[in-house]
Structure formats: structure tokens, C-alpha cells
Specification:
Its main location: cytoplasm. One of its GO terms (molecular function) is sulfur carrier activity. The chain has 104 residues and is mostly helical. The protein is built from 5 helices and 2 strands. The two termini are 20 Å apart. 24% of the residues are buried.
């Protein structure tokens, strides 16, 4: 497991830069992560990120785009608008969670 410096502190990441320690995440870190991948956070973005964090805490798995639609109530089309090209990967990255299962 490697570490990197983000938002003025050391955090644990995997080989692709995804956080590996759930408790190291906070909203200031999320802003830094979003900036790195060109996502400007709005209240709609935060709704998705907070859903992902809450769902992960309950299930132990990162929600897929289908689950975000079915359980979180955010249509896949809207997810692509908020997190262009690879919403599952971008949402989980900003939320400080592992990539969802099946995400390339």
C-alpha cells in the first residue's frame, strides 16, 4: 500500500490512486480529488458522493451506476452528465472508495 500527499496530509492509496482507508476521507479531500479529475462540485454532485459513502458504510461495497440509479435515485444519464465519460470510476474516486466491481 502506498501513500501520497493530498490536501496537506498523507493518505493511503492503491496503484490507481483510489483511497484505501475509508476514514481518511473528508469533504475537503473530496474537493481536491474532484479538482484533480476536472469535476466542479455542485449540490447534485455532493448528493451522489454522500449516497455512495453512506451506501458503502452499510454494504461494504462501492455502489455501481445501476445501484446509484435504483437505490440512490440518480438516473444513469444524469450520472454521466455530472461525472462525464466514466461516472462509476469518477464518483468512487471523489468519494474515497474503491472502484465499483466490474469497473475498468
Amino acid at each position: 500500500m502506498s501513500t501520497t500527499m493530498l490536501a496537506g496530509r498523507e493518505i493511503h492509496v492503491d496503484g490507481e490512486g483510489f483511497l484505501t482507508e475509508y476514514d481518511e476521507w473528508d469533504e475537503s479531500l473530496a474537493l481536491e480529488l474532484a479538482t484533480q479529475i476536472g469535476v466542479e462540485m455542485t449540490p447534485e454532485h455532493w448528493d451522489v458522493i454522500r449516497f455512495l459513502r453512506s451506501d458503502f458504510a452499510q454494504t461494504g461495497q462501492t455502489a455501481t451506476t445501476r445501484r446509484v440509479q435504483a437505490v440512490g435515485g440518480v438516473p444513469v444519464k444524469q450520472q454521466f452528465a455530472l461525472f462525464p465519460k466514466k461516472p462509476g470510476k469518477k464518483m468512487s474516486y471523489i468519494a474515497g472508495l474503491p472502484k465499483p466491481a466490474g469497473c475498468v
